[in-house]
Amino acid sequence: MIYFSYGVSIEIGSDMKLNFLVPVIFCACVAICLFLSGDSVSSSACAICPSGQAGDDPANGCKKSSDAGQRLASIRSEFAALQSHQWAGEYRNGNGGSFALAPETGFAFQVYGCLGLQYEIYGPVAYRNGRIRLTLEGGDLPGPTGFQLIANEFIPVSWGARKYLILPKDMIKFCNDVNSSEEPRRRTFGKHLLRYHDEYAKVDGLPNVPPEFRKYLLTSPIDARIASLGNGDLATIDVGEESGVYEGLELYLVEPSDQFITATVNAAKKGRSEVIVTRYSSNDPKPAIGWRFALRPSHANGHQ
């Protein structure tokens, strides 16, 4: 399953990549908007509208102002005046939301869709012990879980000129994405909140994660093979913690190379590790002794 930020999931086959799926969904959204409105194609169709700014157009489904919109405009002014700040700025993950925060003004989060403003929240922020904490002051989040990327706490991570906001529970996942070269990404869409336009920024070395997470950033490759099979999709690989393997590490099948299959370590031991093999299609073969796994998928060639 690939989980999107709106609390829904879509199962895709091994031959369909997320980078392909997202533009298809976006184009479908644009087509629906044009069908409902009867308008010709324009740059404002299905746009994400920065509420409270001169470009807003109620005729296109965008509110002229709101409490969160006014807060968002003030936040933009504050972080623009700050020039350089450890975490202030506007962040996106490419799923239709604008999330901005600054130390004095607080945070604001809005999502606009084809029919206008979908939801918004805002409130103050506090930075303590390397973590940003949000306090909900106003607005509303629909559904039982709302927008999953907006939580009450983030860890700011710098990488060269890039700024990320990572959920504490996702720090190991972020390190996995660095190990696999999923990050630094060269697109807006991604699993983690990235400051707007930082997808074009270059990086040097490794991201500046908190000390307790540095062990999860690997500098040497891992070459693992399935040594034995367990029940279902459980297996044992022939490398262990002395090679840098850790609980939660995600590996990618590289031999055979015609399947997109992953293995997640659930127990790292000396000389071996136990993994759960994840098959993304019912047509994928069952794990077999000798399968080879690595940190990066076989199709990865440079950063995405």
Structure described in brief:
By secondary structure, the protein is an alpha+beta fold. It is 15% helix and 31% strand.
Number of strands: 18
Overall radius of gyration? 21 Å
Main β-sheet, spatial strand arrangement: 7-8-10-11-12-3-4-5-6-9
Please summarize the sheet with the most strands.
10 strands, antiparallel
Average pLDDT taken over every residue: 79
Low-pLDDT segments, ≥5 res: 1-24, 30-65, 143-149
Helix content: 10-25%
Content-based structural category: alpha+beta
- Please tell me what the overall shape is: elongated
Strand content: 25-35%
Whole-number count of domains: 2
The separation of the N and C termini measures 20 Å
